[in-house]
């Protein structure tokens, strides 16, 4: 399609991240861009916003591109997702309708891995709890957890999992791992040791850090049975997807002392319900799915997303999700 003729819609720039950026300017060079800076409240409103678009740029995962939404937009040819995850898109429906879906992998690797490290340290050293105490004028000291010399277990050794392994090695941890597709060369380069079964990692690790992709096969991969395999002194970290974990089982494991603590950046429901019992626990540190929100990661992803749109309109497809 010639430049300047495509109708491009951004239905969900709320909170705003792409507005006023070089990435938006790149999109505008390819056609007319309609950008919405409020959240669509209903599926029908989302359909109204994107109807007639050739390309839709998806900023927020709260927009669900179901089969019904995609079928209602017969002119849609390209759905460009900002971010790695595409669990908000019905990929089989998109494929059947001839809609190309692209994403922006590996643009927030350092940022997400650093958040995993930060959560791990914050839980181990009880940073939020101690900070609150000192600010209240209290001076109550107690035992903390040293991570140097302990074992970090990585579940999923994509680029973020491997980077988390490097950070763990950097603070003196031994690293073991399990993944669906182990790569011995990468393991040797990073200095981790693969185990044959996920259950072995759960049993042996002092910290388990989750880095698998979400799919029907991985939904609630970590439940009561898996948590019960972990050491009672172990910590659990999740910066991947909330749907990988049975959140009720995790709450019960933390409440009952089955495991010692957890650090989460992702949840089954986002935003997390204010009445969720996880929020009452003293042995958990939470952040609002913000691991990738650094200026560097945001700009890397937005520019790649815009580049995906330009490549598609020029007849070149990159980062296709199949």
Describe this structure in words.
With 322 residues, the chain is of the alpha/beta class. It folds into 2 domains: 6-107 and 295-313, NAD(P)-binding Rossmann-like Domain (Rossmann fold), CATH 3.40.50; 109-286, NAD(P)-binding Rossmann-like Domain (Rossmann fold, 3-Layer(aba) Sandwich). 35% of the residues lie in helices and 15% in strands. It contains 12 helices and 12 strands. The chain has helices at 22-30, 43-50, 67-71, 91-96, 109-124, 127-135, 159-170, 184-190, 198-204, 224-229, 247-256, 295-313; strands spanning 6-10, 31-35, 55-58, 78-81, 100-102, 151-155, 174-178, 193-194, 207-210, 235-238, 261-264, 284-286. A 7-stranded parallel sheet has the order 8-7-6-9-10-11-12, sandwiched between helices. A 5-stranded parallel sheet has the order 2-1-3-4-5. Helix 4 links the parallel strand 4 and strand 5. Helix 1 runs parallel beside helix 12 (295-313) and helix 5 packs across helix 7 (159-170). The radius of gyration is 21 Å and the shape is globular. The protein starts with 5 loop residues before the first strand and ends in a 9-residue tail after the last helix. The model has no long low-confidence stretch (mean pLDDT 95).
